[in-house]
Every structure is written in structure tokens, then in C-alpha cells.
Amino acid sequence: MTASDEALDIARVAAQAAADKLAQEVIGLDVSEQIVITDVFLVCSGESERQVSAIVGAVEEELLKQRRRKTLRREGERDSRWVLLDYGDVVVHVQHAEDRAFYALERLWRDAPVLDLDIDVDRDATA
Fold first, then answer.
1. Would you give the DSSP letter of residue 103?
2. What are the respective helix, strand and coil percentages of the chain, to the nearest 5?
3. What Rg, from alpha-carbon coordinates, does the chain have?
4. Burial (0-12, 13-18, 19+ Cβ within 10 Å), 10
5. Digit-coded pLDDT (tens) for 27-57
6. Minimal CA–CA distance to 8: which of 109, 115, 85?
7. Was domain 5-115 assigned CATH 3.30.460.10?
8. Are the beta carbons of 115 and 11 closer than 8 angstroms?
9. Predicted TM-score (pTM) of this structure
């Protein structure tokens, strides 16, 4: 079993929105074989609480605008150190760079295949 096409689409839109806010190390992990409640973990980080908040806002805005998807659950927003956005088949983790290094989700889920998110890093985010 692999991540659904819809989950991949949602992850790519979220990844591009994060990249447009200069998120660091944006990666998607196909966790559909490891857990049954979601297909994809999208992990990215920001250098400050303010940047984490900006990334979270951009992801939510773009998924609502482009795919009419709202978060089912949001956690960690008050501190803006590690914000989790649950979209059902996709869970977005936006972490402060220090917390990302400490918790190392990529290492924890190292058996999960890394997805090609097809992010355009040279894209003009204002277009």
C-alpha cells in the first residue's frame, strides 16, 4: 500500500506553500505502510517562532484556497515551536529548527519512503 493520489496532491500543495515561506528541509514521508490513520507526514522547519507561524498560515491558506481542505485538528500553535496540522490523510509538522534537530522525526520514521514533492524553490510566491 502506498499513499493515495489525493494525499500526495495535498502534500505537494502544502509543501509548496511552506517552501514559499522559506521553510527549511521540506520533506514528505509515505507512512501509509507504518500507520493506518494517515498516509503522509510532511515535515519542515523555520528559524523562528514567527517563521513557523507564517509557514502554518500559508499551508492552511493554500490548502483551503486550492483544494478546499480545512484542518481537522491543529496543535501547538500557541508556542509556535512545533505545530501539527491534521488533514486526515496528510499530517503537516512545522517545527522550529532547534526542535526538529532534537526530535528528529525523519530518523524516527526512517523506514518510510521519502516522497518527491516537486517543489519549485525558484517560484515567485507573490504570483
1. H
2. 35, 25, 40
3. 13
4. buried
5. 999 999 999 999 999 999 999 999 999 999 9
6. 115
7. yes
8. yes
9. 0.93
